[in-house]
Design brief:
Length: about 170
């Protein structure tokens, strides 16, 4: 096989179109980085570098994973301060001990971007969770966010925040 071992493992655990999306393979919360044991075993150096850089404790999970929803969302949560918006019944057990806002949206980390104390999303279930929990949100259309193989993409899968900077994958003018 021409792919490195870690790449082969991710393909087995997550659909090909999203196999490199960070919110599908790990979660960072409470000064910890959560990831699947098999992914860690195949990618120790990368995960350790992220953990060292962010001064994060590594927490490994052996939760059931595959490329069929909802077993692909074990780490897909939107972090908002000391809370997580996620589909509680399918998030990895190691995250269920935290303050969880349950939502119908399994791809909560994908559907939204949290920046400047505001959730930016086009997803109705995420908006509902925000509204019910007094979390400021900004609704977008999301129709121009593309993800090959799916009807639509999500802003959280197309962007990320580090400090005061929003990083966008792709060209935001198109």
């Amino acid at each position: 096989n021409a792919l490195p071992a870690g790449e082969r493992e991710i393909i087995k655990l997550i659909a090909k179109q999203v196999q490199h999306h960070a919110d599908m393979i790990l979660a960072i919360f409470d000064n910890k980085i959560f990831c699947h044991k098999s992914y860690f075993e195949d990618n120790k150096e990368i995960i350790k570098n992220i953990a060292d850089f962010g001064k994060l404790e590594i927490v490994l999970s052996d939760c059931k994973r595959n490329d069929i929803y909802p077993f692909d969302i074990a780490f897909n949560a939107l972090t908002i301060g000391d809370r997580l918006i996620c589909k509680k019944d399918f998030i990895c057990a190691e995250l269920t001990q935290y303050n969880i806002i349950n939502t119908k949206q399994g791809y909560a980390g994908c559907t939204a971007l949290y920046a400047a104390d505001t959730v930016i999303t086009a997803d109705k279930a995420t908006i509902k969770a925000c509204r019910e929990n007094n979390i400021p949100y900004f609704e977008i259309s999301g129709e121009d966010i593309l993800l090959h193989g799916y009807d639509t993409g999500f802003i959280g899968g197309a962007c990320g925040v580090c400090g005061n900077t929003i990083y966008i994958y792709g060209d935001p003018s198109t």
